[in-house]
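Office hours follow-up: a student asked to see two folded examples consecutively, so here they are.
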Amino acid sequence: MAFSKEHLDALRSKYSGTAADMHDPRFATVAAAIFSEGGKRAAAFAGVPSLLAAPLRSVDSGQPDFGDLQVALMGVPMDLGASNRPGARFGPRALRTIERIGPYNHVLDCAPVQQLRVADVAYLSAERERTIDPDDNLRGAPEIVIEILSPSNTASEIFDKEKLCLENGAREFWVVDPERKQVKVSTPGGHTITYKSGQTIKLEVLGNASLDVDLIFG
């Protein structure tokens, strides 16, 4: 493709400024949200790691309230399914440590962390919290474990993982079957219920909350 002198002069005139010049108004809005007037931003690896550098937020386990958020990120730094593969169990922490996937989301056309109300959240019941040594970490499985079936899963693998979780602190073990569009929920007492389309899962761990099965596969 050949450029005329006039075309080249127009390009030089447009892009002869500094690297900080933003010609796309969308990117300019994002840059204004991320960078200070001096062109600086928060150090990538400073402070406590959180998903996408979202601000940390404590949640009252008795009355969890996310009503003022537009986006809530939730992750559990645990691995019970990859023995002898330490990289897998460090994955959730690594995701937080890398600080962000990118400050700009082209689908939402914004910088989510800077322009939306976002928080990195996690659920822990008050009863479980009282058992934690303040000088130690949370041990055992999360209170809710969700396993999404894939073609590579075997029945024995799912059974072993369910048994391991329910014997180590999990109060519910979910097996989500995308092909059949159903969810099997098991509890430590050996009670199992399979929920299908049109039914509602009662989230007893979260009090009186509930979740429609159709919303999971919607």
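And the second, which I mentioned at the end of office hours:
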Amino acid sequence: MPIPRQPFDPDHEGPLRGVRVLDFSRLVAGNMLSLQLADFGAEVVKVESPGRGDTLRDWREAGVSVYWKVYARNKKSIAVDLKSSEAPGIILDLAGHFDVLIESFRFRYLEKLGVGPDRLLERNPRLVVVRVSGFGQTGPYAKRPGVDPVNDEVFVTSLADCNFSRPLPQLFTPASRVLDGRTRNCLSSPGRDRAQKEGVES
């Protein structure tokens, strides 16, 4: 069945209108998550490093930051020097005005700055804190960095001693997409709740 063509309305509000997202993430996984939220109508504010910006800006095709143009759509940007002495206070001040905070820092980097989830939730008890990492926040690999190729390699290695009677099917989905999908379903709940209250199909 063909998908009916929908007219483009630049003023149309999505189901996540009114939800404010503060995005400290870098590269693909966190940017994909905040991109989906922005596409559904959330107000997303990217926090970038002064001067350089998000590392994804450096991924270029023919001199053009194509990936950044894709992943940064529908977002706003501000610059904060996280190495400055004022950074912890700025983060706490910002957290008080947002519904969701996304980060993909090194292991417990926010805690080192003195603004871990406990402090953030003291400032804003309704804040949803999303921590994007290769291996989670607990367990033996928690301190290790990880991206999609690393996670795929770990999975393949774990199957090395298995005896399969036939070749494996294509099993691997980039971890960022899986993580984004699972987290996005949770974060979309404000939009679903609003739609139900307003009698709109989600």
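Two things to take away from it. The chain has a mean pLDDT of 78. The first strand starts at residue 20 and ends at 23.
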